[in-house]
Amino acid sequence: MHAVTPAVRKLASLPALLALAASLVAIDSASATASVSGSQTGGCNPYVDGTLIPVPCSDHSTNGGSRGGSGTSSGGAGTGRSGATVTNSCAATVLDMREAQNLGLSWPPPTGHSWALLVCLAGVLGAGPQVVLVSNATGVPAVTPQELLTTALGELHIPYLRPETAPPRSHEGLVGLPEWFWISANNWHTRTVTVTAGHVWASVTAVPVGLTFRPGAGLGPVTCTGPGTAYNPNEPSAGQHTDCSYTYLRSSTAQPGNAYPASVTVTWLVTWTGSGGAGGVLDAALPVSVGFAVRVTQGEALVTSP
């Protein structure tokens, strides 16, 4: 076994990691790094959950990147969070001859290197281990920013942002009066995930950039920039203004369920950056929609005697 720096260490859970690694795609032992499932163009879509969506990542594999330079690998996997920011530091776990051969890797490894599992288990999702080569001289794993991007995408949460409305969705609106819609300022913020391995890193960022209200029944949408303006029920309506509103001209009584099938779509700009100048746009306009019913009634005119 080649000597390695103390920064590259074995983990007590190595048998479990090997079991996970065995389920990875076939490894090209002549390559400096193993193939990563989902690293081909259009192959990400990390997962689907009841409140989360997959993030398209087509064309990310065509972006340039460089392998890690001198330095030491992370001593352990860890995560730091600040609001919607996640930082995931990967640890390299060196394989001995038996462990490497069980995974179908060539032995001995290329001169000056050791086979290792790159473990990034401390994030929100917990991505599976990835087989890489590690420099015996520096302890740096041979991994590209594009490969770390796959892990970062698996950790990125782009939520369905439920809109606020005025009148509230539990109340009927009136024909001829504007329906306000907006996203709470507490939810309208950037989501960022950064994954590091030695001096190699990748960071993916999702920024909400637009808001669209679709009133339903084939009526034209209304689009505005930003999260919209919150309606203040304690202020006179005449003194409040918003670009994010829609005025229904007919009641919803002719609609299925006596309500318009409306929706609000938040558009996200998803980009990434990485070490060595890598990066690019993953999705310039990723739409995430939330549907809801809007009931609109016809206001009754007040008739008084002359």
Concise account of the structure shown:
With 306 residues, this protein is mainly β. The chain contains three helices and 15 strands.
Rg over C-alpha atoms, rounded to the nearest angstrom: 26 Å
Shape type:
elongated
Count of domains: 2
Please report the total strand number as a whole number: 15
What's the helix count? Answer: 3
How does the major sheet shape up? 7 strands, mixed
* H/E element sequence: HEEEHEEHEEEEEEEEEE
- The span between the termini is 103 Å
Low-confidence segments? 1-83, 301-306
Strand content: 25-35%
As an assembly, this protein is single chain
Structural class: mainly beta
Mean of the pLDDT scores? 72
Helix coverage percent of residues?
under 10%
Polypeptide structure, described:
The protein is built from 3 helices and 15 strands. The protein has 2 domains: 14-155, no CATH class; 164-297, no CATH class. It has 306 residues and is mainly beta. It is 8% helix and 32% strand. It has helices at 14-21, 97-102, 145-155; strands spanning 78-82, 85-89, 91-94, 113-119, 130-135, 164-166, 173-174, 178-182, 191-197, 200-214, 222-225, 245-247, 260-274, 279-294, 296-297. It starts with 13 loop residues before the first helix and ends in a 9-residue tail after the last strand. The chain is elongated.
Q: Secondary-structure map with pairings?
A:
Elements: H1 14-21, E1 78-82, E2 85-89, E3 91-94, H2 97-102, E4 113-119, E5 130-135, H3 145-155, E6 164-166, E7 173-174, E8 178-182, E9 191-197, E10 200-214, E11 222-225, E12 245-247, E13 260-274, E14 279-294, E15 296-297
Parallel strand pairs: 2-9, 7-15
Antiparallel strand pairs: 1-2, 3-4, 4-5, 6-8, 8-12, 9-10, 10-11, 10-13, 13-14
